[in-house]
């Protein structure tokens, strides 16, 4: 008599299914960091390319006008150490980010600005229209793709012109007599203006003025200064007018270390570089080259790279 063998189940048992799910979970947990790293690498590469375009635009401006653009145009210039001009004394006009628009294929937008009107930070400030109405024009080239911009009501730039660097002794200690080398400070505050770099208040720096070497002087840096409301400065504003003492928008100096606490403070953003990239930030040198700076780089080197003509050029900056 022929025996019938029992039929084998063709499906998974519950235990086998749980094992497969566990294996998939492990694989995902292993792959996810790699995917995130790959995405950040792509964003950092895009950021580098955007900054390289800004460098080309600044050089194009120099070729057309014989000088680099002013970091900001103002009715006042800071030429000696002391207290900065107050909000009532100083009027802010066009910043570098607007002046280079024709060299970024944005002539139509450039022509919409009124250069006889103010470019102050507050969108609702009397006297800033029509310029303040353009602060929310989205120009991707002015914002790093890693920047968490989802909550921004006003489109802010993450790229700041470098107006100078701190005066520093060889041991890294600060040698400035007025708040680490600022040409003026806001009534003893930590905000201020430098003028020993290449893009500062009413500057007209020629490439020939950069005697320390164009490959060894900062021109543009990243900033992680976060702005989240309608009173925030847009990418085309040039001076904060909140409070009695102004501070520059879109300008920074090589004073505080990269990605230090300063980088998150709007008032102190003129004192250092920062970014949302892990471990450092991108910069553009005066020759148009781009580099990624480690947040652990030597402080003495970092600060000297902000100065255009101290007569002590570095043999090797990177």
Automatic annotation (TrEMBL):
Transmembrane residues, as ranges? 12-35
Protein name (Swiss-Prot/TrEMBL): DUF1559 domain-containing protein
Report keywords, A-Z: Membrane, Transmembrane, Transmembrane helix
Task: Write down the species.
Answer: Kolteria novifilia
Which superkingdom heads the taxonomic lineage of this protein's source? Answer: Bacteria
DUF1559 domain residues are 36-298
């Amino acid at each position: 008599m022929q025996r019938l063998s029992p039929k084998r189940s063709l499906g998974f048992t519950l235990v086998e299914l749980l094992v497969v799910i566990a294996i998939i979970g492990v694989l995902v947990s292993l792959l996810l960091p790699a995917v995130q790293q790959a995405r950040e690498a792509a964003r950092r590469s895009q950021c580098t390319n955007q900054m390289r375009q800004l460098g080309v635009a600044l050089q194009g401006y120099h070729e057309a006008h014989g000088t680099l653009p002013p970091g900001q145009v103002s009715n006042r210039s800071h030429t000696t150490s002391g207290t900065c001009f107050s909000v009532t004394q100083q009027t802010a006009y066009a910043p570098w980010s607007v002046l280079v628009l024709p060299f970024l294929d944005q002539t139509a937008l450039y022509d919409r600005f009124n250069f006889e009107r103010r470019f102050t930070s507050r969108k609702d400030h009397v006297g800033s229209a029509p310029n303040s109405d353009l602060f929310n024009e989205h120009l991707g080239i002015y914002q790093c793709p890693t920047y968490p911009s989802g909550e921004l009501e006003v489109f802010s730039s993450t790229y700041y012109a470098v107006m100078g660097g701190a005066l520093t002794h060889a041991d890294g200690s600060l040698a400035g007599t007025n708040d680490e080398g600022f040409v003026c400070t806001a009534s003893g505050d930590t905000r201020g203006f430098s003028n020993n770099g290449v893009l500062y208040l009413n500057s007209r720096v020629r490439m020939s003025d950069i005697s320390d070497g164009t490959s060894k002087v900062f021109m543009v840096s990243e900033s992680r200064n976060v702005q989240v409301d309608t009173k925030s400065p847009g990418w085309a504003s040039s001076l904060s007018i909140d409070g009695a003492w102004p501070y520059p928008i879109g300008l920074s100096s090589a004073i505080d270390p990269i990605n230090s606490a300063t980088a998150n403070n709007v008032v102190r953003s003129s004192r250092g570089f920062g970014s949302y990239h892990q471990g450092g930030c991108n910069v553009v040198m005066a020759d148009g080259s781009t580099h990624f700076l480690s947040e652990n780089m030597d402080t003495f080197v970092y600060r000297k790279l902000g100065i255009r003509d101290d007569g002590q050029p570095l043999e090797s900056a990177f």
